[in-house]
TrEMBL record:
Residues 17-81 form the Glutaredoxin domain. [2Fe-2S] cluster binds at residue 30. This is Glutaredoxin. Keywords: 2Fe-2S, Iron, Iron-sulfur, Metal-binding, Redox-active center. Pfam families: Glutaredoxin (PF00462). Belongs to the glutaredoxin family. Monothiol subfamily. InterPro entries: Glutaredoxin, GRX_PICOT-like, Monothiol_GRX, Monothiol_GRX-rel, Thioredoxin-like_sf. The keyword Iron-sulfur applies. One of its GO terms (molecular function) is disulfide oxidoreductase activity. PANTHER family: GLUTAREDOXIN FAMILY MEMBER, MONOTHIOL GLUTAREDOXIN-S14, CHLOROPLASTIC.
Length: 111
């Protein structure tokens, strides 16, 4: 495993919910990342983000790691879920809510 793949693997495995995105939760840098943050906020779960614009190795490496060509990318308890379109479809169907419940994801403070 390459150094960047090892770094990504450590992040994915050590965070319950992590979103690799463009920008930050407070200042998303694309509409897809903004939509992904809105979904996570609506779910009320605790999550971490990784700004791929700050690290070119992560930005390119995450696409290889997941074998998924676009960003953002959501991981829940080490499992790749998908990008913002898949997140939206799952949320609308109630599947994302069920996933975070089944995986016993911690609630965000104040949620």
């Amino acid at each position: 495993m390459s150094d960047v793949a090892t770094r990504i693997d450590d992040i994915v495995r050590n965070k319950d919910v992590v979103l690799f995105m463009k920008g930050s939760a407070l200042f998303p840098q694309c509409g897809f990342s903004s939509r992904a943050i809105a979904i996570l906020d609506h779910l009320g779960v605790a999550y971490d983000t990784v700004d791929v614009l700050q690290d070119a190795e992560i930005r390119n490496g995450i696409k290889e790691y997941s074998d998924w060509p676009t960003i953002p990318q959501l991981y829940v308890k080490g499992e790749f879920v998908g990008g913002s379109d898949i997140m939206m479809e799952m949320f609308e169907a109630g599947e994302l809510q069920q996933l975070v419940q089944d995986k016993q994801v911690a609630r965000a403070e104040g949620a």
